[in-house]
Amino acid sequence: MQIGFNVPTSGPLIEPDSVTRIVTEGEALGFDYVTVSDHIMVPRNLESKYPYTGTGEFPAGTQAAWLEQLATTAYIAALTKRLRFVMSVMVVPYRPAVLTAKLLSTIDFLSKGRLTLGIGVGWCREEFEAIGAAPFDDRGHVTDEWMDACKELWTADLPKFSGKYVKFDDVVFTPKPVQNPIPIWVGGESAPALRRTVKYAHGWYPVGTNPQFPMNTVGRFKAGLARFRGFAEKAGRNPAEITIALRVLSGPGTKPRGAIEGEAEMFTGTDADWVADIKALAGLGVSAVDVRLFGYGANQSLDGTIDNMRRFRDGVLAKL
């Protein structure tokens, strides 16, 4: 089981010294990977609903400062030697396809092959419009086309592509990524996300707290896996070939152990509860879980975050 943690890209811990301390501490403590979130510019007035809270409220709020995801990942790459980094997730339509391919290829090349590319189509219409991204209502097609163009640039000696939004021919695109291929994890729990996963991804990367597709008990997670495997088999893909990674939006001790329909709610309660949850997921074939060990709000601090990371190492990592 691979265990990851989330680096702050918003809030009071985005100063260089804080990011450096959190990332280097995570590598020293033995975490396998760090996740990096993606927002560029969130409008002050937000009607779009965040998909992973019951109320639709965006936890970071609309007033927060944000670090850019790919630049932050490049910074992390220079700070570390072993730690992998996972885009969690990159909103594919936010950036031009060819530029995105070059940035990701460069990060993978300079980090000696430590990039995992988590991707999503995005949920915030207002942000798409504010940054002049590709059309929100065509974001599924845009995502597929962007990724097809990236894969062509990363693998072909003489890359060429002709799509609805992206066209190139007679170009040189080097250096290629070190990894062939860069692992792609698709975030999301909807039917389009599952179809995208089984079409070309190496991993499925859901969040368990989506109210529309809840996977926050062992029973619900089993049902979600069965649904995913059905999509894979229908597409002629062996589901055993696809990595299952779970993104958890909290850490131990943030919520008392709860129950849903008579079954324990995963990733609530004590360290021992979390160890039991991770072991149960491993038994179901999950190979990666990442957690958030910092919080939003005025009580967030660097010392508190480092303490959370160390306690997680001693109370959870050491017992897996």
Measure the end-to-end span: 8 Å
**Number of strand segments:** 13
Flag low-confidence runs: none
Total of helices: 9
Structural class: alpha/beta
Largest sheet: 8 strands, parallel, barrel
Spatially, the strands of the biggest sheet line up as: 1-2-3-5-8-9-10-13
Q: What is the general shape?
A: globular
Mean pLDDT: 95
Gyration radius, in Å: 19 Å
β-strand percent reads 5-15%
Comma- or semicolon-separated keywords:
single chain; globular; eight-stranded parallel beta barrel; alpha/beta
Could you walk me through the main structural features you see in this protein, from its secondary elements to its overall organization?
This protein has helices at residues 16-29, 69-79, 97-110, 125-131, 139-155, 191-200, 218-234, 271-283, 302-315, and strands at 2-6, 33-36, 84-87, 90-91, 115-120, 161-162, 167-168, 184-187, 203-205, 243-247, 259-260, 263-264, 288-291. An eight-stranded parallel beta barrel has the order 1-2-3-5-8-9-10-13, surrounded by four helices. Strands 6-7 form a two-stranded antiparallel sheet. The longest helix has 17 residues, at 139-155. With 320 residues, the chain is α/β, with parallel strands linked by helices. The protein is globular. The N and C termini lie close together (8 Å).
Explain the layout of strands and helices.
Layout (H helix, E strand, L loop, with lengths): L1 E5 L9 H14 L3 E4 L32 H11 L4 E4 L2 E2 L5 H14 L4 E6 L4 H7 L7 H17 L5 E2 L4 E2 L15 E4 L3 H10 L2 E3 L12 H17 L8 E5 L11 E2 L2 E2 L6 H13 L4 E4 L10 H14 L5
Parallel strand pairs: 1-2, 1-13, 2-3, 3-5, 4-5, 5-8, 8-9, 9-10, 10-13
Antiparallel strand pairs: 6-7, 11-12
Helix pairs in contact: 1-9, 2-3, 3-5
